[in-house]
Amino acid sequence: MSKHFRKTGNCQVCHQRKLMDKLLPAEVINNNILQLIKLDHHNWNPDGYICLSCLNNYRGKYVQKLMEDDLGELDTIEKEVIKSIEKNQLLSENLNEEYEKSLTLGEGIADKVATFGGSWHFIIWALVMLTVWIILNASVWLWKPFDPYPFILLNLGLSMLAALQAPIIMMSQNRQEDRDRMRAENDYQVNLKAEMEIRVLNEKVDQLIHHDIQRLMEVHQIQMEMLSDLHEKA
Questions:
Q1: pTM of the complete model
Q2: Residue pLDDT, tens place only, 4-31
Q3: Angle CA 37–38–42, to nearest 5
C-alpha cells in the first residue's frame, strides 16, 4: 500500500504524529513557502509530510513577506489578515449583529428616536398636533386660550424639541459612521486576504504547470527513444 494511504504520519515541522487527513505531502507545497520552511528545517525531506496548521503558519509568514514588499510597514488591520491566514479563520462576519450587541440602552433609544424623527410618521403627527393646537387657541369661541396668538408656548415647545432632537440625530449619525468604518475595514481585510490567497494560488498553479510540462517532456523523450529503437530494429 502506498504511503499516501497510511492512517497516520509525522509532520516534519512540529514532529507530531497525526492522521493523514491532517497532513499534506511535501511535494505539493509552493516553492516560495518551501524555501521558508527549509530555512528553519535544514533536514527537510521532500518525500515527507507537513500538517495543515504548520503549513498555514508558513503561509502567513510568506503572505506577510509579500505584503511588506508591496505595502511596507504593516498596520493593525493587515496584521489581522496575516493572523487569520495562519489560523485558517474567516474574516467576513455579520457586522450588524456584532454592532447591535454592543449598543447601550441610551444608544438604542437614540437610534429609535432618530429613526422616528426622520420618518413621515413624525411629520404627519407633528402637522396634526400643530394644526389642532392652532385651531384650539385661535378659535373665537374659546374665552381664555392657554396659548393665544402669537403662540409663544408653542414656539417654546418647538424650540426645545429642535434643541433635543438635533444632538440625538447627530449621535445616531456618528454611530452610523462608526458602523460604516467597521464595514469598510472588514471589506478591506477580506479583499486583501483574497488577493494574497489568489496570488499564492497562482504561484502554485504555475508551479504545477511547470512540473507537468517537465514530466510531459520526459515522457515525450522516452517515447522518441522507444520509436528510435523500434525503427533501428525494423
A1: 0.50
A2: 445 788 888 888 888 887 888 877 787 7
A3: 130
Amino acid at 23: L
Q: What is the mean pLDDT of the segment spanning 33-58?
A: 84
C-alpha closest to that of 84 among 65, 57, 66: 57
The number of angstroms, rounded, from the C-alpha of 35 to the middle of its chain's C-alpha atoms is: 29
Three cell numbers at 169?
Answer: 440625530
% helix, strand, coil for the chain, step of 5 = 75, 5, 20
DSSP state of 6: -
Contact status, residue 51 vs residue 159, Cβ threshold 8 Å: no
Phi, psi at residue 111, to the nearest 5°? -65, -40
* Per-residue confidence band for 140, with pLDDT thresholds at 50, 70 and 90: low
CA distance between the termini of the chain: 40
